Amino acid sequence: MSLLAIVGGSGFTGIPALSVLEARHVETPYGETSAPVTRGQFGASEVLFLPRHGPSHQLPPHRINYRANLWALRACGAERVIALAAVGGITARFAPTALAIPDQIIDYTHGREHTIYDGATGVVEHIDVTAPYCEDLRLAAMAACDRTGHAVIRQGTYGATQGPRLETAAEIGRYERDGCDMVGMTGMPEASLARELGLCYASFAFVVNWAAGKSDGIIAMRDIEINIARCVEQLVEVLISLAADQ
Ligand code: HPA
């Protein structure tokens, strides 16, 4: 049995059905985490939970202390981290409310604290990220979708953008030519930091809008909210099943 940590994104400042046992403030070498690390009972299992945008969704993607968050989860005993990520859909299958388990990332972010090997420790390592997600956890996530009867897209390339603004239509055109299927703002440096810290990390991406230029008109925040609520419902069932399988 290994302890699963869930990192919550938009729509997940908490998790319905998680009954909190403890909320722990963790000191880290990198400063403050987004929130205390919650340990809770989730179905038949215990899990850790951390909302990356903070308890009241107050942290924009470029201000999240990804290093502190992942370090704290590891310090609390997590070996596996499943990250929840709202995304915009670019290619045809990635329609609003679709659930996906990405297998690749392109990083378009800048200016974020993106490594633990920043010279401060006197050690530099160049980690391999050929496959940026942990295949074991990706497979477990797919199996949880199958057990609960939720359709899931089993691979796709996640484009990580800086935010907090959404993209222009021309930017999305470029990301599509690059090979991105979906676009979100938090997938990096979270995934590569998890690898640096030796954590097995994978992500459930849930599509909450068509990316810019992929539907008529502008992107309506109200529609995003409605789609987030729909996705939260299906994800909670899948996550309970995933947690029971660790
Ligand atoms: N772009 C970037 N991040 C997002 C989007 C988007 O369209 N939707 C949800 N997160």
Percentage of residues in strands: 25-35%
Parts with pLDDT < 50 across at least 5 consecutive residues: none
Q: Average pLDDT across residues?
A: 96
Instruction: Please tell me the CATH architecture by its name.
Output: 3-Layer(aba) Sandwich
Q: Fraction of residues in helices?
A: 25-40%
Coarse morphology: globular
CATH superfamily: Nucleoside phosphorylase domain
Estimate nothing, just give the exact number of structural domains. Answer: 1
Order of helices and strands: EEEEHEEEHEHEHEH
**Distance linking N and C termini:** 5 Å
Largest sheet: 10 strands, mixed
CATH class: Alpha Beta
Structural class: alpha/beta
Count of runs of 4 or more consecutive helical residues: 5
Specify Rg, calculated over alpha carbons: 17 Å
As for the CATH topology, it is: Rossmann fold
Q: How many strand elements?
A: 10
Q: Write out the distinct hetero groups bound to the structure.
A: hypoxanthine
